[in-house]
Amino acid sequence: MLASVSACGGQNDQGQQQQQAGPPQVSVITVQPQAVTLTTTLPGRTAAFETSEVRPQVNGLIVERLFTEGDSVRRGQPLFRIDQQPYLAAVASARASLARARAAIASSAALQRRYGELVKINAISRQEYDNAITSAQQAQADVAAQQAALRSAQIDLERTTVRAPISGRIGRAQSTTGALVTSGQTNPLTTIQRLDPIYVDVPQSSADLLRLRQSIAAGELSRGGGAARVRLRLEDGSLYPIEGKLQFTDVTVDPTTGTQTIRAIFQNPRGLLLPGMYVRAELVEGTERNGILVPQRAVQRNESGQATAMVVGRDNKVEPRILTTDRTIGEDWLVTAGLKPGDRVIVEGGGGMLRPGMPVSPKPWNPNAAPAGTGAPGAPGQPQGKGQPQGQPQGQGQGQPAQAGQPQAQPNGQAQAK
Fold this sequence. Notes:
The chain is an alpha+beta fold.
């Protein structure tokens, strides 16, 4: 008799506990469209804004180097000096030839004047007078030719001092003092690179660029005025402090890779960026006006690899949804299909035992709070006996085994008293 009373009392206590527990608590977010900035991260390489390979324009021996390797140089600064002696002699010879040509002008001009008077009185033939005119004109032409030769010799003399064609950082010298150099040689004497500003070249798939243009044309994405913004991450993962601008997109698609080169420009006042560095460029594609973001922890994958999420539907019952996710933005997924404004997506809770049609008790998700619903009493799969105080003796009521699902913290002696 007492055993049956005890069993009935245990069953009543179990039912009361399950009624008190109710449906498991879950944390949800209410989906609302918002403006989302879309970015693409792509690998790239830095390239100098200007590059000049310095080569000699005259032949000769290098007699002096006039710069320090690795320094900044300005345009027109002397870099090398080539032996000037042969070119000084060439200038002196050209000046002498010019003086001789000018002297011939005076003689031929005087002869032309005298023949002009004599031809009037038929003292000389007309042919002789014409010859005198031709000689005077040739003398003038010789003067012009000698002037040009003198200028050419002076230019060669000036080129014996090799100057910087651009401003920038100069590299190491490829030729030393005493080396014989020739005009237009293959190997440069040195290389100068302008590093402020500096370019970043990024290859991007032509298919992605086409999709981006179509999205902008359809009004799905909007871009602010001015050039597109670009952020840069360096080789060590740090963010470059200065934001760059998109310069242009190459008009040709590489047939071997199917990519187009995007060039961005960055200010480089401290010279932190050097040509050839590997970087990751974050390109701001535009802003999606009605983007839907869902935390990544709320999205799972089914057996087919589709993205799924649990939604609290009518009567607070669980509904599964298949999602189309475009990309990750921070800790969220950008969802393009499967959700609509106002849907309540489950982020946490239910003890991992949520099933379609299962009633739940939703509450707003607090990302800074402890995970909700994992210890909800009565939740499916909840281990029994968790609510028993650690100090409660286990030996009470050993004369009668506990009912299945009955909390073991309830002593049988109390049930018998009922």
